[in-house]
Amino acid sequence: MKGVPIGNDDFKDLCDNDWYYVDKSGLIQEIVSNLNVKVFLFTRPRRFGKSLNMSMIDAFFNLKYEGDQWFSGLDVMSCPECVEMMNHYPVTSLTLKGLSKDSYDAFLDDFRERMRRLGRQYEYLLDEESSISDVIGDLIRGNVSEASLKTSILNLSEALSRYHGKKTIILIDEY
Length: 175
Fold this sequence. Notes:
mainly alpha; 45% helix; two-stranded parallel sheet
């Protein structure tokens, strides 16, 4: 009997463990059919699967998961335009859940650490041209001023786009 993934919002984990999953991959079709839209905002009540949907979007578009079979048998695979875009983009995913609200400085410290951990996922960029390497190096070292922290997601996105030659998809959860 399949398990019920109570409290688990990691799409890849659900698929790998063959747990029950309500197919919401139609959301991907909706995104692909609206490519002229640059920003999608998904609002739902608490506990309605927003984080799981973000994880599903990451698993579908992220080039680092090329060759995965997680979407076999799901609705999205009947959309040729979607399948063509599967695992085709650099995707960066950031959650703002749990950042300190005690003070502005504590928030900045937490956000700087979150961005440092995010930057570590892209250490392979350190060997690239100096502008890309500088962006990633500063993030990894936590060497980011408040001003640079404000543009760190944009800078990371641009570095990934330059390296991969494709637009970057940015997923922000718990905004």
